[in-house]
């Protein structure tokens, strides 16, 4: 539904009765000079004074993706914060594709971190959570205690070892072209298509819940078009600057990629070799998962994080 011209908000009743999702919604209203105030949704579980695990989803998912991981991490003593990017989940959704850019997505998330005054953050990021979250880290590295990257990337359109061979490759090129030329997306079917096992119908319905019609999907369509496919794209210089920061980041940096995601696996080695904090870490490939490993192997991923981080204290 439109809350004002150019901004939609998914009705609350779309989120009733979601499977295994007992979490209380929280909202933060952020000023936006072009669009007016935007409401950003997030989950916030665990002690407010505990070290923070900031979980960032990608496209076209939302914080529902992390539901299997929140409980074990809270039980280990952590505060888990899982926001929905603007345009996704229960957050407000600008209805024009021109309202979205890579830089604006980064700014919205950076403003969120500042507004909640998050500190001692371990960033957990997958898909677009990586390109957004790692750019946020680069602007305020002092707030981050560690990073776990999963099936994600931070492209700079450079050859190996600074990038991946043959970037962007046929999978990402085809996905970007699909989003560029489409005016709607079958969200749950996209998620199902890149899972090893098809999720249950109620789970797929939960991924569709934020998007009652095409008017609510401008962000889900446009975000893919923001991937820097060559040096002419916005974001290349900013990503290279973010890598300059990451190449000095000596706090713990873990890779948790899955065994069945051909679109991102080449970035595993880039992160392991370019980030100093990745040296000596217990990197893992998680078995039995496609691109959305939190959905298929969330419990295993949570166990890896708990073993790596140890109990909060």
- Which architecture name does CATH use? 3-Layer(aba) Sandwich
Structural class: alpha/beta
Strand order of the largest sheet: 3-4-6-5-8-9-10-11
Approximately how much helix is present in the residues?
25-40%
Q: Provide the low-confidence segments as ranges.
A: none
Distance from first to last alpha carbon: 44 Å
CATH fold node name? Rossmann fold
CATH-wise, what's the superfamily?
Alpha/Beta hydrolase fold, catalytic domain
Tell me the domain tally. Answer: 1
User: Approximately what portion of the residues adopt beta-strand conformation?
Assistant: 15-25%
Short synopsis of the structure:
This protein is α/β, with parallel strands linked by helices and 313 residues long. It is built from 10 helices and 11 strands. Helix content is 35%, strand content 18%.
